[in-house]
Every structure is written in C-alpha cells, then in structure tokens.
Amino acid sequence: MKTLACCILSCIITISCFAQKLDYTIAPWLNNKKAAVSLTFDDGIKGQYLVALPLLNQYGYKGTFFMTVKIINDQHISWGLVRKAALDGHEIANHALTHPHFTGLPLDSIAYECAQSNQLFNQYIPSQKVITHAYPFGDGGGNTAGDRAIRRAVSPYFIAARVTRNKPYAYNPYDFAKTNDDYYNINSLMITDSASFVDFGKNTDETIAAGGYLCVTYHGVADGWIITPADVFKKHLDELKKREADLWIAPFKNVMQYHKERNSARLTAVITTKKSWKLSLTDTLGNQQNWDQPLPLTLIQVPEG
Question: What does the alpha-carbon distance between residue 159 and residue 119 come to, in Å, rounded to a whole number?
C-alpha cells in the first residue's frame, strides 16, 4: 500500500500545525463523505456506451461496466469504445465469458468463465486490470451451500463480486463485511421498473443516513433489455448531483478497495509528541498490486479534561 503511506505522511505534516488535542482515524469513505455510491451496468449493451457513458462524462461521474464477452460481440460494440471508456477512468469489469447460469455449471467451468474472460479483457484493455465481477443472473447471492460454493469458485480471480438485490433494503450498511465471503456477496439496487425509477432519491437518502454503500445496477439504457429510459437515467444523475456534498461516487472497484483496505488496516503511533505523530500502517492484504486506493486520515478533536 505505497499510496497509503504517502497519504499518512501528508497528514503528519498537517497534524504538526495543530495546537488542540487531536486523535485520528481512517475516514470511513474517501474525502470523509457520509456514504458511497457506484453506478454499474451489466452485460455490455449499446445504449450503455452510446447514451449512459456520455451522460456520466457530462456529470463527471465514473461508472463500472460489467461486461460479457459474448454479448459485446453480439451487440457489435467496438472494443475501441470500451478501451476509450477505460482510459477515461471508468471501470471495465467481469460478467463472465458467455453469461451462463452459474447454478447449473460445475465449479471448474465457473472458474473457466472467470479466468478466460479476465484474460481477454486484460488483453483487449491493457490500461487497466480486471479485478471485480458481477454474477450472471445474480447466481451466487444466496445463503445456500451452492451459492457459497459459487463464491468460493469466483473469489480467486477478483477482490469482490456484486449480486443483484438480495437484502430487504437497497444499500449495504457500512459494516456489511463480517467475513471475506461478504465481499463476494455485495448487495445492489437493480433498476427494473417504475418503482425503482422513482425511489432512487429515497434509496440514496437512506444510504446517506446509514453511512453505507449504494451499488446501483442498470441493464439497458434507452435500448436493449430491462430498459431504463434515457430521461430517467438523467434524473438519477440529477438526484446524485443534489447530494454530492454527502456522497463519494466512484466505480465499484475503488469502493471495494477502499472498504477492504480500511477494514484490514491497523494504524499504530510510533512516535507521539505534543505537535506531531509518526504513524505506522500495516494490513493483512496480499497481492499488493490490487490495493492502490488512498486512505486519508480524519482528525478528531478530543474534549479537554
């Protein structure tokens, strides 16, 4: 976590300027926002690139595109368009090779679907590495032994995986990750009908109040299947714009990196004086190349006496 050390070093310099008694913690979300939101798109449908992507760029938001290789080819989407989205800071992520029902596949076939599509995505889109997944049809998001086996088969290839809505609420509470398995069972709000269209602002407010994470799933935008009309999608972006002061709006991988890094981080004061601290950060994460999301510190004023 080299970037984390740099963040902490900058905080040491800042801390030395304060006279009041302070304590520190890693901010729950980047820039100390109250909640986090990701806008994700499944399958690889033309309207996502021709309609949703220009709107995301217009609003300054970065999305996550969970792509299925077969659907990209069937939709005749240019890989150049996908590469451009990646270069612009959007996440290109894994939605399997052929979009099968994982519940009907042997575990080694599930592993093949993940590994082979990762290889192709990393070959076609060299500017970023694929590190997250969304289960086709949401398979893997339940509490059965079969669902847990699917998650175990997928986990070696990704840092986290998203399901479709599997909770009675739309968001993920901040403390959703009791075990590592929970990072492969991320709840999402699937936009499917008039109710989910109009409740978007309400769901966002609930997420802010809970300090949690709202992961939104779209399929077709203006065309394709499970269609969200373009004007509705724009209204959703407007709802987020109203709440920007409270929200960290970022791709799925960035939010998962941040949460997982913070969840595993340990800050220890090595040297403490009245005017400065020297802090040491350790973590329990392996494969350090996957963990490059900065973790800024938050300063807390401690009441005297």
Answer: 16
Q: Does residue 184 contact residue 155 with C-beta atoms inside 8 Å?
A: yes
pLDDT tens, position by position, 143-156: 999 999 999 999 99
Q: How confident is the model at residue 271 (pLDDT cuts 50, 70, 90)?
A: confident
What Rg value do the Cα atoms of the chain yield, rounded? 20
Which pair of structure tokens corresponds to residue 109?
Answer: 């076939």
Q: Tokens at residue 165, please? A: 């809505």
Per-residue pLDDT at 9 exceeds 50: no
Q: What share of the chain is helix, strand, coil (3-state, %, to 5)?
A: 45, 20, 35
Does 247 have pLDDT greater than 70? Answer: yes
Per DSSP, the residues of 111-149 read HHHHHHHHHHHHHH-TTS---EEE-GGGTT-SSSHHHHH
- What does the mean pLDDT of the chain come to? 90
Is the distance from CB of 276 to CB of 240 less than 8 angstroms? no
Structure tokens at 219: 């399929």
Closest by CA to 171, choosing from 148, 205, 194, is: 205
Interval 188-244: pLDDT, tens: 999 999 999 999 999 999 999 999 999 999 999 999 999 999 999 999 999 999 999
CA distances from 45 to 3, 54, 66, 226, 245 (A): 35, 14, 10, 11, 31
Kindly report the CA angle at 190 between 258 and 193, in degrees rounded to 5? 155
Q: 93 forms bridges with which residues in the sheet? A: 66
pLDDT at 302: 59
DSSP string of 65-103, one letter each residue: EEE-HHHHHHHT--HHHHHHHHHTTPEEEE--SS---GG
Pairing of strands 277-282, 266-272: antiparallel
